[in-house]
Amino acid sequence: MRDRPLRGLVLRQERCRGAEVVEESTSAAGCSTSVKKIGFLSFGHWSDSPHSRTRTAADTLLQSIDLAVAAEELGLDGAHFRVHHFARQLASPFPLLAAVGARTERIEIGTGVIDMRYENPLYMAEDAGAADLIAGGRLQLGLSRGSPEQVVDGWRYFGYRPDEGDTDADMARKHTEVLLTVLKGEGFAQPNPRPMFPNPPGLLRVEPHSPGLRDRIWWGAGSNATAVWAAEQGMHLMSSTLKNDEGGAPFHVQQAEQIRAFRKAWAQAGWQHEPRVSVSRSVFALTTDLDRAYFGADGHSTDKVGYIDADTRAVFGRTYAAEPDVLVDQLAGDEAIAEADTLLLTVPNQLGVDYNTHLLDNVLTHVAPALGWR
Fold this sequence. Notes:
Number of domains: 1
Structural class: alpha/beta
Strand order of the largest sheet: 3-4-5-7-8-9-11-16
Largest sheet: 8 strands, parallel, barrel
Low-confidence stretches: 1-32
Strand content: 15-25%
Number of helices: 10
Mean pLDDT: 91
Helix content: 25-40%
Order of helices and strands: EEEHEHEEHEHEHEEHEEHEEEHHEH
Shape: globular
Number of strands: 16
CATH topology: TIM Barrel
Distance between the termini: 13 Å
């Protein structure tokens, strides 16, 4: 499998993802399938079910740390965690990110994503700075305006309300703009003339400050417009397994268009640091009977269209589940994966650390090399 050539791939020099690419494999869609960062994304579910390996919140938190350690040992590039409130899922990310940072040495650590409607941006800057320093500058912090919730307007219970005339999405973006400003590390608070401890000269900033974290903030965009807004703010793009249906094309085609709009806006904004793009996928290379029992039925998966709220029609991307040879050919045709530099593999965390390590290893061993990702 490692030496198997892909049908329809050619070597050529082209511009893809906004940078020159020389002698790399390209898909039929014309975008590079070059070396990628590969990470996992866990929603961190738990349930008191005899079929779940995560029966409690403690199980999920501790196993999340163990899976990140195992992923680093496999050679994965990232460990990312979803954040949901009022649910039996991971919610408060920074203690977990700090713990993962303390147990690992190389792997990127991130969120996908934090709902900014719930966040105090100054307190968040302190938490994020601390976690990033513990991890040695490996945080890749994914933010967003949030998704449909378990409760009605849950952010109100956290003490937040949009300004007059604003929506909850406006509030999330305002919180984000404050966070981005604070993460620059510039002083803004007037010091007490008689402080308890001596102050440095000038206005004060929140501490601890982690240099470089401002350039490692991502935005989970559900539409082309919010992807452009993220680029204008200097945030990297995180695009998941669903997006607003903007034209009726297949999911991966619409997502590739979103990525191209983001990169164009980034170039126009004149940012100096390189833009990054991640896409999330459910990818299962079936190599054992247990794999086939769990995911074999997903081999015929297709995109689905539905409504995430009363007004928003969305397209949900398919699941990829097949024997490695078939999977390689399927993934080679995914235009959005080809456009992105980072692929996040969603993991069924309730199946436990050992089995999820096996699933991740299947992709690294049987799929990534054949696609030129490794």
